[in-house]
Amino acid sequence: MPTNTRPIIAVLGSTVSGGTASPALRSRLEAAADQWHLARRHGVLPVVVCLGGIGGEGTEPEAPVMASIMESLGVPRDMLIEEAYSRTTEENLLHLRAMITDPRFPQAWAGKPASLAPDPRVLAYGGDERIPVTLVTSRFHVPRTLLIARHIGFIPRGVGAPDPENRRCWAIMREAGALLLWGARTVRRSLQR
């Protein structure tokens, strides 16, 4: 089933605590808003999918806070989609694929809080079609995100937001471990088939 041809910018979440986005998340959102405004200047209106449930050290779903910040950065609410259930990069991308291959996309999600839109966790994983998408995340996170996205069936374009200086070393070590863990899970799943 072909997907809607509207361009998609998906911004991956990061920690939200007390309604406040972490510096890393704020940087990602600013980069995503820049991508949206650039597309708009060229006559294109992509939807922006804010991906993130309660992850890592967070205390509340990331997507609603992300959508609010995107609005404050000039992206209209009816261009924003909240996915507030994923906890990992892989879940971000699996839920994104499930939503955008659903025939109701983007109308069933655009401009609505996640609680009033279809739950991507219960949607069918959509087909074999390779789907182009712009993925916005922190620079250190781009390589692993693109690897997982290709594996899931996207034709991804990565946009790396600046990393907070004080967390760069930690981020690189975290990504190395996360890549090994994802690889081990992927091998285990293929052996179980």
Automatic annotation (TrEMBL):
<dbReference type="InterPro" id="IPR003848">
    <property type="entry name" value="DUF218"/>
</dbReference>
<feature type="domain" description="DUF218">
    <location>
        <begin position="8"/>
        <end position="156"/>
    </location>
</feature>
<protein>
    <submittedName>
        <fullName>YdcF family protein</fullName>
    </submittedName>
</protein>
<dbReference type="InterPro" id="IPR051599">
    <property type="entry name" value="Cell_Envelope_Assoc"/>
</dbReference>
<dbReference type="Pfam" id="PF02698">
    <property type="entry name" value="DUF218"/>
</dbReference>
<dbReference type="InterPro" id="IPR014729">
    <property type="entry name" value="Rossmann-like_a/b/a_fold"/>
</dbReference>
